Amino acid sequence: MRKEIKNDVLNEKLIHSKLKNGLNVYVLPKEGYQKQFAIYAANYGSNDNQFVVPGENQPIKVPEGIAHFLEHKLFEQEEGSVFDAFSKLGASPNAFTSFNMTAYHFTSTGNFYECLDILLNFVGTPYFTDQTVEKEKGIITQEIVMYQDNPSWRVFFNLLKGLYQNHPVKNDIAGTVESIQRITKEMLYKCYETFYHPSNMVLFVTGDIDADRVIQQVERHFKDKNVSKQGEIKRIYPNEPPLVASQMVKDKLPVPRPLFMLGFKDTQVGQGGQALLDKMILNDIMLDMLVGQSSDLYSKLYEEGLIDLSFSAEYTGEKDYGHIIMGGESPNPEKVVDMVYQEIERLKKEPWDVEYFSRIKKKKIGEYIRMFNSLETIGVQFVSLVFKDIGLFDYIERLMQINYGQVKDHFNRFFENYHSSVSIILPN
């Protein structure tokens, strides 16, 4: 099944083909571009620690950090390093594990189709032994310890632990030193076979490439592989109450100035598709109006020396959780937080500047159009949206339809009875 999706605003077209084994392949041709980019992603992240395998009845619970561990191990093949194979072709590979997905990608300036074969082969060929799993535990332990000393990492995860009581998003993606010791070769194969099934994955390719050739190449890759159909994976997440676990989390590290993050928990979750897309867009616009660099509050905080250019704010929205996070460095984080709360209350009562809303909306449209100049950015954006049942072009189309009244109403609803937490790292 081959389908072509066009967007006149972006002047882009997306070619989609769904293979018999369930794999969705997408190609975004970019004529004249010197680089090519491919990303192969599984709808599987660090949150997926409890699940029911299709065809089975009993839930399985695995240690924290296993998705990230699996990402590391796939790069190690029986015949040698995957990095060396890409390097010989002049390509640059990498991978990442997030709370909700694992993605493997490469950027090339030639030999693209050979690189695509390597990507499909190594992600599709797990190789784990007891010895290599034990060796990896030492490597990941060092990584976990290193990140524990990273102030930006610590302030972020301290905030998530403050915001969430039960949801696994509060746990470090890499797991803990204790949890990864419990990972076995058998567990890795079980998780791989469950979540790395083609029907739970997506391949996205962009650059000056031949879409038909890509699709045929992927079909040939799977032609002789006996991939059975797989039912839906039942993911089990604990019930998350609306109240936060802690309103304030303070910690100390050797930093020159305090770091802080203020988080607001989204309690209206459980939907993907257009409902989630609308919320993402509304939150993006309202955050820009509240604390964006052209907002009254940002100017006031900056002029008083309470924030600097490290300050930022964003909304993260998934089907089963969501939160707004803002923060940066500040000599007085608690004063910044108080001023944010005050500004929220003021904006709930007073009308907003409609012209300011129009400028912010135009800026957001421009940012999304500009994003299509970066192949890597398009690819990561695509896979992050597709697993939420949102199309790459849906964002810009919906953004253009959003009006002032929708943003104002959403702001008042979101902050009507909000649940927030603050994380602060102080110099020790």
TrEMBL record:
GO molecular function annotation: metal ion binding; metallopeptidase activity
A Gene Ontology BP annotation from the UniProt entry: proteolysis
SUPFAM superfamilies: LuxS/MPP-like metallohydrolase
Domain Peptidase M16 N-terminal: from-to ranges: 64-176
UniProt KW Protease keyword: yes
Assigned keywords, A-Z: Hydrolase, Metalloprotease, Protease, Zinc
Domain Peptidase M16 C-terminal: 182-363
InterPro entries: Metalloenz_LuxS/M16 (IPR011249), Pept_M16_N (IPR011765), Peptidase_M16 (IPR050626), Peptidase_M16_C (IPR007863)
Sequence similarity: Belongs to the peptidase M16 family.
Protein name: Predicted Zn-dependent peptidase
Species in which this protein is naturally found: Caldicoprobacter faecalis
